[in-house]
Design goal:
Elements: E1 14-17, H1 20-23, E2 27-31, E3 42-65, H2 73-77, E4 87-113, H3 115-120, E5 123-126, E6 145-152, E7 171-184, E8 187-200, H4 203-226, H5 235-257, E9 259-272, E10 280-288, E11 292-294, E12 302-310, H6 315-326, E13 335-348, E14 351-368, E15 374-379, E16 386-391
Antiparallel strand pairs: 1-5, 1-15, 2-4, 3-4, 3-9, 6-9, 7-8, 10-11, 10-12, 12-13, 13-14, 15-16
Length: 392
């Protein structure tokens, strides 16, 4: 399923009634899930929101590159803390979990309005575009969802060279003197011939050259700082020259000590908890310290799971709502939700790495307002709960 183009949240539904006692009783709200709205009736379709948990996982990548002259670091520069082999490692960074709202395809309702209400213009309902659903949508079996991950940020280009070619050319001209002795009768003549050849510098020769340059850079910095050259440089010029020498020295030292490159990516997942009193346990991906994030169907690394545990704060009103629903009524007011508070935890290999409390509407209780006596009602845009109600 695509992660872009979500319908984020069902906006506030406001019901304003000026002659509530007379006209509000002539309105009836019928659920699509259990009732059968009459096609002959005029009215409006609206939906309650459900909550989707957005998980953003930051993954930090660390690459260690062995310097081309690492084996000579101790011998030529006295360095001990050097990288001796190439390696790549990953670790988890910041984890952010948030709750967002979208239209719940299981909770569509039809507001039946008769002609008397329309003519009196005493009823006004305002909704966002998310509330006006074209047709009746899919009222199939609801289930938890894990949507395809969005990835932002780029790990370093693997083809990018960690070291610059600072020692070019690597070829060296070798000149040998060949002495030829030619004997003519009793006279010996020596003939000297210069033989030139081109050979590639050995790694040790290149390392020695780089080490010599490091020492020369140190000498140059010392001369600038102590004023050995007896030149009155301005402060800006002196700082610029020392800064450039430090950069050069760092690059040459990296050829002995090695190079570390760090980068990061953020993986974004969307999980829709199933409407169950048992909560949700869903594996969203896998994580390995050597390979990073991989698909949840893979075999490498530890599972990364989202656990949504209801805290049962609605237990005290659950029986009351059930008994109220069993009472036969001809008319129903607007349906709304009382969300359930949950403890939402992200676990890696069973160990919690992030945890927070969230209100999840689809784990809560659905009930309805009275069919009359209410003149001003407003629902929460995230959970569908009533946040304002005025009784006439």
């Amino acid at each position: 399923m695509k992660t872009s183009g979500f319908i984020f949240g069902f906006c506030t539904v406001i019901v304003l009634l000026f002659n509530a006692v007379i006209t509000y009783g002539q309105m009836n709200v019928v659920p699509f899930s259990s009732g059968k709205p009459s096609p002959e009736k005029d009215g409006i379709i609206y939906s309650l929101p459900r909550n989707v948990i957005k998980i953003q996982i930051e993954v930090l990548k660390r690459e260690n590159f062995k310097g081309p002259f690492s084996e000579f670091a101790g011998k030529m520069l006295g360095l001990t803390n050097v990288i001796i082999e190439n390696s790549t490692s990953y670790k988890l960074g910041t984890v952010i979990m948030t709750s967002i709202a979208e239209v719940d395809p299981q909770q569509f309702y039809f507001v039946e309005i008769d002609d008397k209400v329309k003519d009196s213009r005493s009823l006004m309902i305002t909704m966002s575009e998310a509330g006006y659903i074209s047709g009746f949508a899919d009222i199939g079996q609801n289930k938890k969802e894990v949507r395809t991950a969005l990835v932002s940020g780029d790990f370093s280009n693997e083809n990018l060279k960690p070291f610059r070619d600072l020692l070019k050319p690597v070829l060296i001209e070798k000149v040998d003197t060949v002495i030829r002795r030619i004997s003519i009768d009793t006279t010996t003549v020596e003939e000297k011939v210069l033989k030139r050849s081109i050979s590639e510098k050995t790694p040790e020769q290149q390392a020695r050259e780089a080490a010599d340059l490091i020492y020369r850079i140190e000498d140059n910095k010392f001369s600038l700082i102590t004023g050995y050259q007896e030149v009155n440089y301005s402060r800006e010029s002196l700082e610029f020259m020392i800064d450039q020498l430090n950069k050069m020295e760092k690059e040459y030292l990296a050829m002995f000590k090695g190079q570390i490159r760090e980068s990061q990516q953020v993986y974004t997942y969307y999980v829709t908890p199933e409407p169950s009193t048992d909560g949700t346990l869903e594996t969203i991906c896998r994580f390995s310290k050597t390979k990073g994030i991989s698909d949840k169907a893979g075999t490498s690394g530890e599972s990364v799971s989202l656990v949504v545990t209801p805290l049962n704060q609605n237990k005290a009103i659950e029986d009351f709502v059930k008994q109220r629903d069993q009472v036969a009524r001809k008319l129903h007011g607007f349906y709304y939700r009382v969300p359930e508070k949950t403890l939402t935890t992200l676990r890696v290999g069973g160990i919690p790495v992030a945890e927070q409390q969230m209100l999840i509407s689809q784990l809560g209780i659905i009930t309805f307002l009275p069919a009359g006596n209410m003149s001003n009602v407003r629902f929460d845009t995230e959970t569908g709960n009533v946040i304002q109600a005025v009784s006439e």
